[in-house]
């Protein structure tokens, strides 16, 4: 989702767009600040200025290692963002195994994976896009049938950014491992929200983005399992053991380390209090608004995310009215991104156009309160009613009979 | 978040003429469900005078689709059918103080609903020939379908030619990859290959002489006049012209003349003159229409006028 109606801080509005980005935690900011001024050294340097920063990076690596349960801290490679981690993983697998020219992914990945794969197709690579059903679930038999010694990498997201749907990546990594195929997962939305213990999985590579877990934007991690063959995307200095050249973004790395430590501390809360708030919001809206439904797989879902499709109205219009009341969320409508089609995730689940354009994603964080959720539950029904009054699909007090036939505009 | 004008927001929050009207004798349904914008326009036309006495809209769409539906109904109420048919997309966008390029298709939809409703009133069949592609060039709101058709119809082979014919690619240049892909595709159909080497080389700015040698005020104004004079033949070739009116610090006021006055691309031309002046004088200069001279501080420039560039 590209366009988000965002607020400044949580102080002057209700921020339910945490899958887009999160507020940097105050403790994270405090941890980072010295690394802009007193602790400005280059960790590669042979003096105390550099040395102290080097130690701080080591601490951060350890904090992230703990959050994702990596066996070694050298498996953590710092990058500039989730997108860089995704690109590095996929391009590395192709370069390290030039005889393997196929990729398996899904058609609901983030553009960070999808756009790269589409580009690789132009270079002659074959990409298999796994389909999803109406609840956004994969068919593992389709996946099994595609695994072969021609496949360089399977890249399957851990959690979907739009619906929060969780894919069975641990199982899929084992299937890939048995077939001798590398397995990468874009876990940008999952890390910090669900417990992860990588050493007990067969996952070869995993992407993290700092700004989804209360660290700043512009810092990410690629987890690379020891022994997985690797080819760097950026070559140059020996930073990150030569696997990602470029002087370390030390302040941001320290911040991400702190954010990882906090995420681990709050993991329990994410699974309980945040989940309860999400469920309260979802039940509140579903019981007050007719003709709306939850998209994705509610039984296998991130605890913070709920995506509701409001039929017969359009998402950008909903967001604008919400924004007027200080409530921030995002939508899968075409109009929010300036494209011609609603979100590829909604299309992949075969959600009808009249509902896909009205899909709204509410994504919470541990900073949200029950009072906020209650205000949103109160605000949504009149907004939906107001827009439905304008809709050609809506009659006096409900959808017109057989809506798609009653209003069938030219060139639809 | 879209940079909507206050007028767009106002029409969205308080739409005029929402809902179907009673006693309508003309209806136009247009739009595309896949792209999330659809509009039903209902009109009450006086059969004797053909004056539109009332108009109402129902829209499934985004903020600007609702705002441009509201604007359209306000514009056409009281017009005769003949007058109403002359309302252009640009008129709708202007009424709303501009729309972002990605959103121009919302005003296209309003105009088409009007055509469909008039056809319905006259008992004619309205056939839409509208085909919309993905937006390629944001600077000039040109979509893939228009570029592809123009490339095919005129046998174009370079990005530069595409810019000449469609304006796409003539601004910030970030859409050149997309344009090259279309060229490669169309050329491949004809058995030819796209030659990337034919692309013009990027402009490298030389160190301006004026930076090296300081100028007196008189020398500076002379230099500005010289640069503007040197650009005149190019504008005259398009039946336009430009004249230097005043120089105040970094502001250069000019009069656009002839065909330039109503040109959709007047602001682009001004930018071109400005760029040339900046390059030649080696200092930052703003070129402003002389019409703004007496009105105090320069206004924020309007959004790039798009008008007929959008296929309707
Ligand atoms: C699933 C997923 N992958 C990748 C990204 C890209 O991350 P970044 O913005 O750090 O490049 C995002 C966030 O926008 C995401 O949600
Ligand atoms: S986007 Fe086409 S020139 Fe700027």
UniProtKB/TrEMBL annotation, chain B:
Q: Which GO terms describe its molecular function?
A: 2 iron, 2 sulfur cluster binding; iron ion binding
Give me the comment on cofactor binding: Binds 1 [2Fe-2S] cluster per subunit. Binds 1 Fe cation per subunit.
NIF system FeS cluster assembly NifU N-terminal domain span:
4-125
Q: Which domain of life is it from?
A: Bacteria
By its UniProt entry, which SUPFAM superfamilies does this protein fall under? Fe-S cluster assembly (FSCA) domain-like, SufE/NifU
The family classification in the record reads: Belongs to the NifU family.
Q: What does this protein do?
A: May be involved in the formation or repair of [Fe-S] clusters present in iron-sulfur proteins.
Identification of the protein by name? Nitrogen fixation protein NifU
Q: Which organism is it from?
A: Rhodobium orientis
